[in-house]
Structure formats: C-alpha cells, structure tokens
C-alpha cells in the first residue's frame, strides 16, 4: 500500500493552489482513480505564513500531520481569495476534490 503522507514526487497538475506550492520546501502529488477526487498531495511548509487560497471551483481537505496536535482544514469554493494559515516545519497532506 502506498504511503499517502509521502507520495512519490511527480509533475504538478493544472489544478493546484499556487501559494501552497510556492511556499513549500517539498511538494508532491499522487493521482487518484476515484471519480470525485482530482488528486492527493503532500508538502512541507518552508515559512509560516497566511497564504491565499484562490477560488478555482475545487474543495481541498488539508490535514496538518503534526505528531502532537494534528488538525484538518476544509478550503471550500469562495468567491474571492481567502487566507489559510500554514505553519513552518509542518507536514501537510491534502485531498483535492474534482469540480462539480
């Protein structure tokens, strides 16, 4: 069974949150065969920041894989960019749902 918290590195997709990718020290993507899921992704945050999640019609479920205090955020489909706080040195795992 593949390790979903550390999927193999591969080319990025056209449907990614650009600020998640740009602020990460490592970013990887794993495709999904499920019709409702676009892809899975994992990344390590290089610098703590309030990043912008841009509206793109997709929903992301983002897990902070912190060993002592794991959390989850659901980033919906806002009409304008919204702030998402990500913490430096934390490892995140995300599930991107397909549009529609």
Enumerate the spans where pLDDT stays under 50 for 5 or more consecutive residues.
7-12
Q: Please report the total strand number as a whole number.
A: 7
**Average pLDDT value?**
82
Q: How far apart are the first and last residues' alpha carbons, in Å?
A: 29 Å
Radius of gyration: 13 Å
Q: What is the number of domains?
A: 1
Going across the major beta sheet, what is the strand order?
Answer: 1-2-7-4-5
CATH class: Mainly Beta
Helix content: under 10%
Order of helical and strand elements: HEEEEEEE
- The percentage of residues in β strands lies in 35-45%
Oligomerization category of the chains in this entry:
single chain
Q: What's the CATH topology label?
A: Jelly Rolls
Helix/strand-derived class?
Answer: mainly beta
Principal-axes shape call: globular
Largest sheet: 5 strands, antiparallel
**What's the CATH architecture?**
Sandwich
Number of distinct helices:
1
Give a short summary of the structure.
By secondary structure, the chain is mainly beta. It has one helix and seven strands; from the N terminus they run αβββββββ. A five-stranded antiparallel β-sheet has the order 1-2-7-4-5.
How would you describe the overall organization of this protein?
The protein has 100 residues and is mainly β. It has one domain: Sandwich (Jelly Rolls). It contains one helix and seven strands. The protein has one helix at residues 18-22, and strands at residues 24-31, 37-45, 49-53, 60-64, 71-75, 82-86, 91-97. The strands form two sheets. Strands 1-2-7-4-5 form a five-stranded antiparallel sheet. Strand 1 (24-31) and strand 2 (37-45) form a beta hairpin. The N and C termini lie far apart (29 Å).
């Amino acid at each position: 069974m593949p390790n979903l918290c550390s999927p193999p590195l591969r080319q990025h997709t056209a449907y990614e949150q650009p600020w998640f990718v740009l602020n990460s020290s490592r970013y990887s993507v794993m495709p999904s065969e499920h019709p409702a899921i676009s892809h899975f992704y994992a990344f390590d945050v290089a610098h703590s920041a309030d990043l912008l999640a841009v509206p793109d019609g997709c929903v992301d479920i983002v897990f902070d894989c912190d060993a002592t205090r794991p959390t989850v955020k659901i980033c919906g489909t806002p009409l304008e960019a919204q702030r998402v706080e990500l913490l430096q040195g934390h490892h995140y795992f995300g599930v991107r749902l397909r549009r529609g």
